[in-house]
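not sure who needs this but someone in the group chat was asking about CAF17 C-terminal domain-containing protein from Devosia elaeis so here u go. i didnt clean anything up, its just raw.
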Amino acid sequence: MTIHLRADRVLFRFSGPDAHKLLNDVVTGHVPDSEAADAAAWALLSPQGKILAEGLAGWMGDALWLDAHESVADDFFKRMRMYRLRAKAEIEDLRDSHRLGFSLEQVPGAQRDRRGPAQLGWRVIAPVAETGGWSDDRVYHAARIAAGILHQGNDFPANDAFAHDIGLDILDGIDFVKGCYVGQEVVSRMKHRGTARRRPVIVSGIAAPAGSALATGSREAGNVGQVVDGKAVAILRLDRITDPEAVTVDGKPVALSLPDWATYTFSEVGGEE
């Protein structure tokens, strides 16, 4: 089996009797409570509801292991230590000792990368010394782009997108039942008022770099993310896509498609049911 190194992700280990409560009180998602659970999506939000960090969380051994993009790793580590206060929890930055990988096939000890209705494969964690034979991450990014999954750092910067913008409400990355967490008021308001206008859309036939604007007529609807084999995921204003077949990137026609898990459609003003 082939394991693909996700070289731009940094792992953090949360251990101790209060580790689960600490994370559950701060991040958006359903924090796993056992090794039997699939890895779960999460996001750390600003008080204004913007994503500061996001990734997956899973149990391994006696601790929770979270990954975040390298561009926000230092800030995430700093904020989580601040939120820890008197909690009996240890937070370790493992960028020097462990690596995150991806496999299309099940690997012993790995956890399923399942985000609600979207299943990507398997999340693999190993010490650096055991990752010398891992391949690059092109296969991983091709798979997650085909599934319509956005990643901070690859597709959008920190403090730029809301949780609904990247579909976390559909991909089980938001727990709407648990108590308060940072940014919850904004998330709840977007859900109940149906104000999510920006959503993930798969764009094909791109001959331009990441960050290029997607235009519909004379108006821009958003920007494409990381491009792999001419495909990317973009956070687009659905209400501006009145004709999905009449859009361009860098002046050239491209094709749009919605992720299989999408519960929204083009031309929507809101985006919530």
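also The chain has two domains: 4-140, 197-272. if thats useful
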